[in-house]
Amino acid sequence: MTTSRLAPVAMSCGEPSGIGPELAEAAWQALGTELPFVWIGEPAHLPGTVPHVVVEDPSEAASVAARGLPVLPLAMPGPRVPGVPQPAQAAGVVESIARGVALVQEGACSALCTLPISKQALAEGAGFAYPGHTEYLAALAGADEVVMMLASAALRVVPATIHIALSEVPAALTAELLEKRLRITRDALVTQFAIAVPRIAVAGLNPHAGEGGRMGREEIELIVPVLDKLRAEGMSLIGPLPADTMFHAEARAGYDAAVCMYHDQALIPIKTLAFDRGVNVTLGLPFVRTSPDHGTAFGIAGQGIANPRSTIEALRLAWRMAGSAAPASPETLDAGTHA
């Protein structure tokens, strides 16, 4: 039985017709009493490959975890239909997220781990108007600016711009945006990853980081001035660096996180290094939120073959971050030690 004084992690149910219910059971099977978490959802939607225990309060999670997956029940109409979202369940999926946030905000849970949702299913079934989890969480928390980080044992990356066309990146990449991304990243590394003086590597936008202006001037005119300003305030920043040489092992040893200029520049290296172990972390919220770095996987839902590794790592990282006990070096992210 865990002896930690931390409250359990809240886990929202995600899309019932996806692999979320299977991931919840597999995570409990892997973690048992090692790390207390409580799944918020309709008990009837669980596959039943492991036992579950219905609780009335998250505080019961640690004491019942030896007997089964702790479940905070949230009634939803109709059965789970793997691979086929049910519109009537969409409102319940949204409520699961909101309830998880409320539990963390009131101190009943220490962090939130969200299982994958289908934005289309929520929009069609519940009028969900947000682009995704992150924006909804920001609205619930009243956060003005949030940042997506992908974290693994080998690498932490933050894309400055995310889901936009590559042709739109130069116009979207402003000095104000980059400065905000860097500040939020630095603050989170200090307060939630327990790194006293974070070292942040910053990628250039262009090949060879512009090569002195011969391959583009964004580095000279935009990125360098921002870095110089923040360095003058005491931030430890490296770059702008050529993106093709900053992700090998020796280079990664020199920094704690990398801020990249666009989606693929950040996500290709981490998904190459840790395809099934990456964790999505939302920085800038007043609480800890992690998520597995994949979607609902409707195509394999209900087959019992979903890989739970990213979910397990998301729970472990949420637990460490909630205790402000994340290791200064990312090498122990996979080690299974806890606060």
Automatic annotation (TrEMBL):
Main location: cytoplasm
Residues binding substrate, per UniProt: H133, T134, K271, N280, R289
One Pfam family cited in the UniProt record for this chain: PdxA
Binding site for a divalent metal cation: H163, H208, H263
GO biological-process terms attached to the record: pyridoxal phosphate biosynthetic process; pyridoxine biosynthetic process
Record note on cofactor: Binds 1 divalent metal cation per subunit. Can use ions such as Zn(2+), Mg(2+) or Co(2+).
Catalytic activity from the UniProt record: 4-(phosphooxy)-L-threonine + NAD(+) = 3-amino-2-oxopropyl phosphate + CO2 + NADH
Entries under Gene3D superfamilies matching the protein: Isopropylmalate Dehydrogenase
Enzyme class, first EC level, given as a word: oxidoreductase
Any GO MF annotation of the entry: 4-hydroxythreonine-4-phosphate dehydrogenase activity
Keyword entries, A-Z: Cobalt, Cytoplasm, Magnesium, Metal-binding, NAD, NADP, Oxidoreductase, Pyridoxine biosynthesis, Zinc
Entry EC number(s): 1.1.1.262
Annotated GO CC locations: cytoplasm
InterPro entries per the UniProt record, alphabetical: PdxA, PdxA_fam
Pathway: Cofactor biosynthesis; pyridoxine 5'-phosphate biosynthesis; pyridoxine 5'-phosphate from D-erythrose 4-phosphate: step 4/5
Compartments where found: Cytoplasm
PANTHER family found in the cross-reference section: 4-HYDROXYTHREONINE-4-PHOSPHATE DEHYDROGENASE (PTHR30004), D-THREONATE 4-PHOSPHATE DEHYDROGENASE (PTHR30004:SF6)
Further remarks about this protein from its record: The active site is located at the dimer interface.
Family: Belongs to the PdxA family.
Function: Catalyzes the NAD(P)-dependent oxidation of 4-(phosphooxy)-L-threonine (HTP) into 2-amino-3-oxo-4-(phosphooxy)butyric acid which spontaneously decarboxylates to form 3-amino-2-oxopropyl phosphate (AHAP).
Subunit record text: Homodimer.
Protein name, per record: 4-hydroxythreonine-4-phosphate dehydrogenase
Organism annotation: Salipiger thiooxidans
